[in-house]
Design a protein that fits this description.
There is one protein chain. This protein starts with a helix and ends with a helix. It is built from 13 helices and twelve strands. It folds into two domains: 2-51 and 239-368, no CATH class; 59-229, no CATH class. The strands form two sheets. Strands 1, 3, 4, 5, 6, 7, 8, 9, 11 and 12 form a ten-stranded mixed beta sheet that branches. It has a two-stranded antiparallel sheet with strand order 2-10. It is α+β, with helices and mostly antiparallel strands. Helix 1 (2-16) crosses helix 10 (288-326).
């Protein structure tokens, strides 16, 4: 019964102070909309940037320790390592590297899982197409220039009588151009190695600290292996993503501070206008704490009533910002709703702190005398 009466008083106060209540609602809508847009932007832009940063190549490598006999990783170990890459968006590619005799020269070749390797080698410029069969290869540009190779030619190596079709050439701007890429089955056949492979490349959307923790975990379980983040890639990604996140976060904080200041000014004026009302309530027995709760509850109700409009405007703004500025697709995340409502409550508590202190210091006798 008391609670129903309390709510009735809140709604009555909101309806009697339409102008000031409307201003508070506008500030609340602005706070919700801006927070929805910028928090969503941080998340969506990070995802988009992580996709774009795939151009840096793999950011994690697992390889044998140098003192390991044979310097190879077994497929049984790979199954266990794969389980440790717990993220569903992880791209993992085992690589079988070796040297073959070709045209009286030693030639580096690599056997890979083609689908995975293509995803972590998006920085390569490929002329032609990627191989999609065990009998096809992708040749580095330096090798192609050195031996004047052309698309559609076939290669035959001393270790195998099978002819391999050149499906494409790749450029990376690094020494990678000195190798020939096979499917894993093709390389296994030439190198006569089916039980082991050389190392694992991975592309993980983790921070550098998370990658280092993963490295420690793998080395703990497999003392004969060495797991290392590729620091050049990981540090570059972390710096870019952290700067974007920090920039958007500080902009959000500044806008929320402006919202809190607007609430402070409005609520202070509102308390001055309602001095007689609060003084009469104090004279009738209401405590300062009860009046402070009443004032806060009025604002909370006003804010929550209009918050759906703030979420709609925020998502609309998020879609525009994400697409126009970062060419990213925006998605509304329901898990952000409670976070944003908590942020709104904090803004209200801070913004009205000055006004409620004035309510607490009101002297009923002085106010009712008109002083």
């Amino acid at each position: 019964m008391k609670f129903k009466m309390f709510l009735k008083l809140c709604f009555a106060s909101i309806s009697h102070q339409k102008g000031k209540s409307a201003l508070m609602m506008i500030v609340s809508v602005m706070a919700v909309a801006v927070t929805t847009s910028l928090l969503g932007l941080i998340y969506d832009v990070r995802l988009q940037m992580q996709k774009e940063l795939m151009a840096f190549g793999p950011n994690f490598k697992v390889q044998p320790q140098w003192n390991t006999i044979g310097n190879m990783i077994s497929w049984a170990q790979y199954d266990e390592i794969e389980k440790m890459f717990f993220r569903p968006d992880a791209i993992i590619c085992p690589v079988l590297a070796g040297v073959v005799l070709w045209k009286d020269r030693s030639q580096l070749i690599e056997g890979v899982l083609l689908d995975a390797y293509q995803k972590i080698s998006k920085h390569w410029i490929v002329e032609g197409t990627w191989p999609n069969k065990p009998g096809e290869v992708l040749v580095g540009e330096k090798v192609a220039q050195k031996f004047h190779l052309k698309l559609g030619e076939t290669l035959t190596f001393d270790q195998s009588s099978q002819a391999f079709l050149i499906r494409g050439f790749f450029r990376s701007g690094t020494r990678e151009e000195e190798k020939i890429v096979f499917s894993m089955k093709g390389a296994q056949k030439i190198l006569k190695e089916e039980k082991n492979f050389s190392f694992v490349f991975a592309r993980l959307n983790n921070s550098l600290q998370e990658l280092e923790n993963l490295s420690e975990n793998i080395e703990k379980h497999f003392p004969d292996l060495k797991a290392v983040p590729i620091r050049r890639v990981s540090l570059a990604e972390g710096a870019i993503l952290d700067r974007i996140g920090s920039l958007v976060g500080w902009v959000n904080i500044l806008i929320l501070m402006v919202a809190a200041l607007a609430l402070m000014a409005t609520s202070t004026v509102l308390v001055d206008e309602r001095r007689e009302e609060f003084g009469l309530q104090r004279a009738l027995g209401a405590s300062p704490a009860q009046l402070m709760r009443l004032f806060y509850m009025e604002t909370f109700l006003s804010a929550f009533i209009v918050s759906p409009l703030g979420f709609l405007l925020g998502f609309w703004g998020l879609k525009i910002l994400a697409y126009e500025v970062f060419s990213a697709q925006a998605t509304f995340r329901w898990e952000m709703v409670p976070v944003i409502l908590i942020v709104l409550m904090v803004v209200i508590l801070l913004g009205e702190s000055v006004a409620v202190r004035r309510i607490a210091t009101l002297e009923p006798a002085m106010v009712l005398k008109g002083e």
